[in-house]
């Protein structure tokens, strides 16, 4: 997805708004090539502040995300967004209401409540951002900062596996192996106990590659899907893994959760 438009998201908070902004930015990592400016408005605790912020949001045709625990002020933001034709999303009060129902208790309506999110949450956000930036060999200069480096030929589940591990707090980079192209030199400098080589049965890899080409509207009968070439490509990859003394994981027929668990076990991270 790509566009030349620049979109604006207003984040309104009765505290610093830092946590809410991080949540928004984590969501935006799923939208590649879209220009989005996030404008945070902190310490919103009066009606006048809400009117001022929403007037500015109207001028920029912004999406309004808000975390205001005072129900009266949150309702005002909701109503004003409706009146001004703005799209608004309350990301704290629905959660508070469900918790209140479940716990049989009334929320305190204390500003700054979202700062109760623990450090583990922020670690996961940081890991996801790192992993998205370092997908498919994009930023090899940051390989030394990765907790886990996944290596494999095309269509060996490197990206979905990376994202799954990132959601569990691991900074992951993945590097594709391409016939005729040397791997980046930075890869060979990484400690071998942080790298996993992925492989798959050649029959299954041919199926996956052919399916990908068909989905792209291309002829699936190419060297990319030739069985003998695919088989040799995988043999070369495994020889390379052994030379580097990397752990190896077979992804054939496995759910991403199962493969992720095997990666963590082999790297002694679990």
CATH architecture of the largest domain: 3-Layer(aba) Sandwich
Helix content range of the residues, please? 40-55%
Oligomer: single chain
CATH class of the largest domain: Alpha Beta
Secondary-structure element order, N to C: EHEHEHEHHEHEEHHEH
Q: What's the arrangement of strands in the largest beta sheet?
A: 2-1-3-4
Count of alpha/pi helices: 9
- In total, the number of domains comes to 2
| Overall strand count | 8
Structural class of the helix and strand makeup? Answer: alpha/beta
Low-confidence stretches: none
Supply Rg: 24 Å
CATH fold description of the largest domain: Rossmann fold
| Overall pLDDT level | 91
Strand content range: 15-25%
Notes on the protein architecture:
This protein is α/β, with parallel strands linked by helices and 270 residues long. The protein folds into 2 domains: 6-117, Rossmann fold (3-Layer(aba) Sandwich), CATH 3.40.50; 122-266, 3-Layer(aba) Sandwich (Rossmann fold). It is 43% helix and 16% strand. Helix 6 (158-166) crosses helix 9.
Please tag this protein with its features:
single chain, 270 residues, alpha/beta, Rossmann fold, 2 domains, 4-stranded parallel sheet, 43% helix, elongated
């Amino acid at each position: 997805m790509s566009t030349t438009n620049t979109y604006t998201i207003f984040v309104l908070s009765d505290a610093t708004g830092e946590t809410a902004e991080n949540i928004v930015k984590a969501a935006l990592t799923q939208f590649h090539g879209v220009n989005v400016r996030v404008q945070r408005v902190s310490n919103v605790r009066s009606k006048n502040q809400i009117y001022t912020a929403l007037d500015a949001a109207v001028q920029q045709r912004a999406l309004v995300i808000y975390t205001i625990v005072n129900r009266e002020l949150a309702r005002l933001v909701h109503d004003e967004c409706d009146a001004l034709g703005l799209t608004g999303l309350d990301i704290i009060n629905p959660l508070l209401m469900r918790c209140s129902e479940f716990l049989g208790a009334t929320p305190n309506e204390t500003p700054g409540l979202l700062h109760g999110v623990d450090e583990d949450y922020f670690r996961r956000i940081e890991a996801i951002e790192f992993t998205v930036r370092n997908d498919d060999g994009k930023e090899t200069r940051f390989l030394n900062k990765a907790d886990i480096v996944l290596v494999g030929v095309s269509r060996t589940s490197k990206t979905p596996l990376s994202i799954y591990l990132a959601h569990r707090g691991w900074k992951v980079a993945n590097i594709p192996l391409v016939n005729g192209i040397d791997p980046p030199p930075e890869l060979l400098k990484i400690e071998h106990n942080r790298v996993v080589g992925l492989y798959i049965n050649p029959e299954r890899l041919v199926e996956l590659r052919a399916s990908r080409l068909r989905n792209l509207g291309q002829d699936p009968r190419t060297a990319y899907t030739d069985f003998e070439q695919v088989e040799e490509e995988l043999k070369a990859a495994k020889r390379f893994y052994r030379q580097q003394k990397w752990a190896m994981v077979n992804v054939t027929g496995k759910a991403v959760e199962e493969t992720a668990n095997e990666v963590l076990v082999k790297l002694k991270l679990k």
